Amino acid sequence: MINSSVFDYINVLDKAADAAWKRNEVISNNIANIDTPYYKRQDVNFEDELERALGYSKYKTMDAKIRDVQDEKLAPRVVNDYSGFSYRLDYNNVDVDTENVMLAANQIKYSGLMSGLSNEFQNLQAVCKSS
């Protein structure tokens, strides 16, 4: 992590991209275990952690919220999703169609995050050139 207020958005976007990458791995693991009896699907909980880190104050600007984020505490958590639920006889709760949709949505999210990171670096580069 880069420790400067100039890089606050970059640090948060980096953490979000790491979480999206981790979610791709977890979804791929779910698909790989589609036929494993008693396997329970997993997911990554990052959005709740980010929301908590940003705080709930409606009187702060987004810049102030991002500045206050303690990004070293901002980490994706792998959780069992619907662990008590199973509609299959082998107690596995993974549905391949749902996983593929979630994988496609997450890949779009990851692409957007990478584009955001690229834009932030382009902004920094533009500022450095104009100085």
Structural domain count: 1
Gap between N and C termini: 25 Å
Strand content: 5-15%
Biggest beta sheet attributes? 2 strands, antiparallel
What order do the SSEs take from the amino end to the carboxyl end, as H and E?
HEHHEH
Alpha-carbon Rg, integer: 18 Å
Count of distinct strands: 2
> Reading side by side through the largest sheet, how are the strands ordered?
1-2
| Structure class | mainly alpha
Global geometry: elongated
Number of helices: 4
List low-pLDDT spans.
none
Report the average pLDDT across residues.
89
Into which percent range does the helicity of residues fall?
A: 55-70%
Task: Describe what you observe in this structure.
With 131 residues, this protein is mainly alpha-helical. The chain has one domain. It is 57% helix and 6% strand. The chain has four helices and two strands; from the N terminus they run αβααβα. It has helices spanning 8-32, 47-54, 62-68, 96-130; strands at residues 42-45, 77-80. The two termini are 25 Å apart. The mean pLDDT is 89.
Topology:
Layout: H1 8-32, E1 42-45, H2 47-54, H3 62-68, E2 77-80, H4 96-130
Antiparallel strand pairs: 1-2
Helix pairs in contact: 1-4
Q: Which terms summarize this structure?
A:
131 residues, mainly alpha, 2 strands, two-stranded antiparallel sheet
